[in-house]
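Homework help thread (please don't just give me the answer)

Our assignment gives two proteins as sequence + structure token strings and asks us to describe the second one. The first is just a warm-up. Here they are:
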Amino acid sequence: MLHLGRVPFEVGMKRIKLSPRLKMIASLVPLGCSVADVGTDHGYIPVYLAQTGLYGEITASDINIGPLEHAQRSAAAYGVADQIRFVQAPGLSFPESHCSQVVIIAGMGGELIASILQDAPWTKTNHTLILQPNSKIDILNAWLMDNGYQITQAHMVKDGGKLYQILSVIGGNDTIPLMPAQLLAHPQFFRQRDPLLPEYLEQLIGKYSHALKGIQKSEHLSDAAALESLILELQNMRRETETWQQ
């Protein structure tokens, strides 16, 4: 079901507005591709893509019926209910999930995203993954590195006062193993000179410096040494971003 060439939305139809986070995710979907939005929640991204008329078959899936029904209501409200396939299933376990050229997994913890991909090894072949972890970014990056995935784009976006990482991923191994600090802020951010990276690094340095003070008061000296090393790496990365403006 290819929507290319269709009128994107009828005259008088409301056009959905996305938050900065969701808009950045949608912007990374290549035109003409079929898309699966896993854990679709309100279904805003599938609705947005359907309204443009520039993408292939669009699937919205969720493990719970409540969010899926909400997504269906969103699609109906914006006049694109007949252009989206709705599926209740955990992760990518639904039929023909492998037919989606692009898989979006956003708004979940990094461990859960890794678990979903672990159960769908076909995502390594001829698929683009757009991943937006809410937490455990280092765990997700380590899993991707260890399981044959490569981050080709990395974007930072601020939404509601919070910074989010959005990664575009394909099958293939990065040639250089990542250091602990790079698992938190992937080298791709440096290659692209992401303007929000300095602020993100400052937040990490503050977070782990605060944690270090707590550990130093305990007897876990080995943990303190590892944390000191991580903070030093982050500080070096922050200094590197200062050269961008020189």
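The one we have to describe:
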Amino acid sequence: MEIFVCIKQVPATNKVEVDEETGVLKRNGVASKMNPYDLFALETALRLKQAHGGRVTVGTMGPPQAQSVIREAYWIGADDGYVFSDRRLGGADVLATSYTLSQAIRSIGDFDLILCGKQTTDGDTAQVGPAIAEYLGIPHAAWVSRLTLNGDGVDAEQQLQDVIETVHMPFPCLVTVEQDICMPRLPSLRIAREIGDRPVHIIGLDQFLDTDETHYGLAGSATSVERIFPPEHDTVREVWTGQDSADRLHARLRQWKII
């Protein structure tokens, strides 16, 4: 079984500046880490491989320095990894990012199962995974908390708002997983020593099936960020001590016309 896992390198801090002209995050010089939700997708893939055999390939869209997150995936247990890196891919919104990843996956080969974390911590849209599946024309399930192989496909247990629903999807298919699906393992020093300097493949737009630049990056984005800003805090705190605290609270609530 061939499994592909979408991973992403995200800022390791919430103090990230935004480019006022493009509306995209300024990532240069900012410490990065693997998107926490993607760790659950990678662990799910590795458990399926252990139980049923196959290979696990990981891929990320980003600058060349995103190789570090691929190497981290290697140390966890992934077999192969790609960075989809090209300046023409920069500034993509959800729509263009999803299309880019679908084209990148197609350029690599055929996969039975594509796994994604349910969302990223720097975007929180939870839309990229399902959108990739739509572009690839394959079935998909989101918010999956349990995944098992069943014949020519998988059974996916989805945590919907009011019910838990189990669906069967034939291969190829895509699944976005919840964080309670499993407990991710840590990178292994033993694996790091065994694989040594395993290469990371870097491919760009010229290797995709669709090389039309207008379909990618800012040019291929249907939306743009008008403004990003931290929430304003205007909380005022008072600390009361003493036996008259209850009377003061009562008087203040009457002043605010809450009671």
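TA reply:
I won't write it for you, but here's a hint about the kind of observation we're looking for: The mean pLDDT is 90.
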